């Protein structure tokens, strides 16, 4: 059986709301725990509040990286500044999980993000009516401590044209 044919057959078995290995019939004991935690993290992003997002970040050990934007090993304060700038640039932010793998201390999270861009080409703030739709796909590698705080994050994303 070809790899393509195998994927097509298995795709029919996977339900839309099942993430990661659970969809393939393999359930890590911490699967439900990491899904629930990730849903809380997504809700913080959707809130548009940098403080709610930063509640998931360890204030002392955080190293946050977004290589595509040229950000490597940002501290807690630098990450908060980045989030404050980024979340103010969106209207109608929505994040969907495509897959989530891992355990309590390390997860890989594949996502899609849709929004309307709230900042124009000259840096001006756009109304929701004037904003154009945007879509991104990406993946985060996330290391978590015992307090469910992110201590290291590597984010990789790409704008879909």
Automatic annotation (TrEMBL):
It comes from Heterodermia speciosa. This is SnoaL-like domain-containing protein.
């Amino acid at each position: 059986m070809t790899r393509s044919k195998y994927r097509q057959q298995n795709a029919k078995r996977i339900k839309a709301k099942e993430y990661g290995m659970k969809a393939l019939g393999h359930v890590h004991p911490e699967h439900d725990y990491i899904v629930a935690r990730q849903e809380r993290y997504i809700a913080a992003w959707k809130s548009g509040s940098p403080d709610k997002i930063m509640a998931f970040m360890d204030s002392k050990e955080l190293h946050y990286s977004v290589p595509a934007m040229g950000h490597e090993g940002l501290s807690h304060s630098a990450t908060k500044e980045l989030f404050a700038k980024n979340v103010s640039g969106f209207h109608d932010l929505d994040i969907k999980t495509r897959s989530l793998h891992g355990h309590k201390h390390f997860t890989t999270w594949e996502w899609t993000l849709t929004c309307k861009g709230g900042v124009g080409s000259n840096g001006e703030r756009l109304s929701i009516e004037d904003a154009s739709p945007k879509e991104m796909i990406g993946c985060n590698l996330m290391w978590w401590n015992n307090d469910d705080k992110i201590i290291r994050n590597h984010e990789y994303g790409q704008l879909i044209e």
